[in-house]
Amino acid sequence: MENKTVKAIKKTAIKKAPIKQAPAIRAEPNNKVNIDGKIITTDDLLNDFLQLREDHRLLKSDNRKGIRRFRREEELKPYQAELIKMQKYLEENNRRMIIIFEGRDASGKGGTIRRVTRYMNEKHYRIVALGKPTEEQRTQWFFQKYITQLPAGGEVVLFDRSWYNRAMVEPVFGFCTADEYKHFMKGVVGFEKDLVRQGTILVKLYFSVTKEEQDRRFTRRKTDPLRQWKLSEVDVQAQERWDDFTKVKYEMMRRTHNAATPWTVIRSNVKHQARLNAMKVILNSVPYEGSDPALDFVPDHNVVYSGAREIELMEAQRLREGKFIS
Fold first, then answer.
1. Where residue 145 sits, what CATH number does that domain have?
2. 8 A C-beta contact, residue 324 and residue 250
3. Per the domain annotation, does 326 fall within a domain?
4. What DSSP element (H or E) covers 35?
5. Which residues contact 267 (CB under 8 A, 6 or more apart)?
6. In terms of residue numbers, what domain contains 123?
7. Coil, strand, or helix at residue 319?
8. Structurally, how many domains does the chain consist of?
9. 3-state DSSP assignment of residue 257
């Protein structure tokens, strides 16, 4: 026998929600309608309907975008947890690590850096993005300003552009002389090999974006007030000087990719895939313990290319098209 309390709960639970009474609608002369005592024209009614339909469409679109964004960020979290383990290994073993983020403007370097460092211990990593050299720095050995930024034991330094400015941006825009460029290209491999030989883990990532995608991102920066700060004079000229950048990219890859300090190229038209695969490359470069066996650490071969493979592809483009394309 059910007691009175249980019966009362069941009775309450099965009650139907009250049905909202439909509005009273009555046709009026001259294409007007009376809705609950309010007179409205059929044209206004139609416009209200069309506006509601558009608002509903935009709401559904925003919801879908929000869900997709949430899912993308959730997919990164297991790898961000692995980055914390990696950082702990570096701290416990007093290892130094440098991660270089290079690539054209609007190729996704900054967004990837933010995702990589989001949950890392702030005490043991630094993001370095150096501005124009001072007059004093212009009189110094080129690498001197970068040496002061190199990591201590247990620290990770992420360079948002690096000494490779001299191989890419500076020669294209005439910010260095031909001799300065030549000396850099002769010395950089030895400089990097010395870092590695003395125990520094060096990861060199080049983010590769197509000309069309770069233009789309620039257009968005121009119209989005939250992104306009990213647009610089160099960015404005990047499309016009696309071929010049491609030539110096090829020379940089050809002359500075080697077994000791290799380049890894990240196709970054799809930002999420670029971020996810960059994390995998970084994690695979450090022999930390306790990685999650359920995770897939193999980079997507459609996104990640070795520097040697990129050189081969660029040379094949030049043979087919008569010039470099990417």
1. 3.40.50.300
2. yes
3. no
4. strand 32-35
5. 208, 273, 274, 302, 303, 304, 305
6. 77-321
7. helix
8. 1
9. coil
Q: What gap in Å lies between CA 145 and CA 259, rounded to an integer?
A: 26
Q: What is the pLDDT of residues 124-175, one digit of tens each?
A: 999 999 998 999 999 999 999 999 999 999 999 999 999 999 999 999 999 9
268-302 as b/e: b if 16+ CB within 10 A: bbebbbbbbbbbbbbbeebebeeeeeeeeeebeee
Residue 22 lies in a domain: no
Instruction: Confirm whether 9 is domain-assigned.
Output: no
Residue with tokens 């001197």: 144
Global pTM value = 0.81
For residue 297, is pLDDT > 70?
A: yes
Angle at Cα 174 formed by Cα 173 and Cα 176, nearest 5°?
125
Q: Is 244 among the domain residues?
A: yes
pLDDT per residue over 251-266, tens digit each? 999 999 999 999 999 9
Alpha-carbon distance 106 to 114, whole Å? 14
Tokens of 181: 């460029």
At 45-103, the pLDDT tens digits run 777 777 877 777 777 666 788 888 999 999 999 999 999 999 999 999 999 999 999 99
- Quick check: 252 and 244 in contact, CB under 8 A? no
